[in-house]
Design goal:
alpha/beta; Rossmann fold; 6-stranded parallel beta sheet; 37% helix
Length: 203
């Protein structure tokens, strides 16, 4: 089982120019490793729709890699999104499911069927051809560059230790760069950055 540091530090090193969408318990921790204008926090919107949002971004920006750090509780709420991603042909999307088996930022309540769900098997069942599953930090760090490269959609399940992050508040008190402004302003910023960048192709 990985710590959040073991999960996020290598990802920050290898993400290159990908758009990265975070969810719930990894939202604040990701801000310790990145202050990129291509980061977007989906932690205080409708719960369960982070992967949907990331899919929409991937379809709107087909030349740029989009990485989604989704929670296991969030993924359970919208399992149909797995099939939608395949149907949409989102070749530039890398979908992580962070498995800590709890709703961390609302008090670490256990998710339904905690410990019994094989998310990687679910992804394979709906047609993901590239599926990774990690419980060991060394194996994760070694295989991460391959998981992030090439065509997708890619599914990555990672077992991570439970944390103690509390509810997200968007204010100057937050340390993470992308939490210092409102959700609406974050969306406007990302749109402006992508519009200014113009067409982009990432492997």
């Amino acid at each position: 089982m990985l710590t959040k540091e073991q999960l996020l530090r290598p990802l920050a090193r290898h993400r290159r120019d990908a758009i990265l969408v975070t969810c719930m318990g990894v939202t604040r921790p990701w801000g310790k490793y990145s202050a990129s204008e291509l980061d977007f926090a989906s932690a205080d919107s409708a719960m369960g729709h982070t992967a949907d949002l990331a899919l929409g971004i991937a379809l709107a920006q087909p030349g740029r890699k989009v990485i989604c750090l989704n929670g296991d509780g969030s993924m359970l709420m919208t399992l149909g999104t797995l099939a939608t991603i395949l149907e949409a042909g989102a070749r530039n999307l890398v979908l992580f499911v962070i498995q800590n088996e709890s709703y961390e930022i609302t008090g670490n309540q256990p998710i339904p069927a905690a410990g019994r769900i094989d998310f990687a098997a679910l992804a394979q069942a709906v047609g993901f051809r590239r599926v990774y599953s990690f419980e060991d930090g060394a194996a994760y760090e070694e295989e991460l560059p391959a998981a992030l490269s090439g065509d997708g959609p890619v599914f990555v399940a990672v077992r991570v230790e439970k944390g103690s992050e509390g509810p997200i508040s968007r204010s100057r008190k937050e340390q993470a760069h992308y939490l210092k402004v409102s959700l609406a302003e974050s969306a406007h910023r990302l749109r402006r950055v992508l519009a200014a960048a113009g067409p982009f192709t990432s492997s």
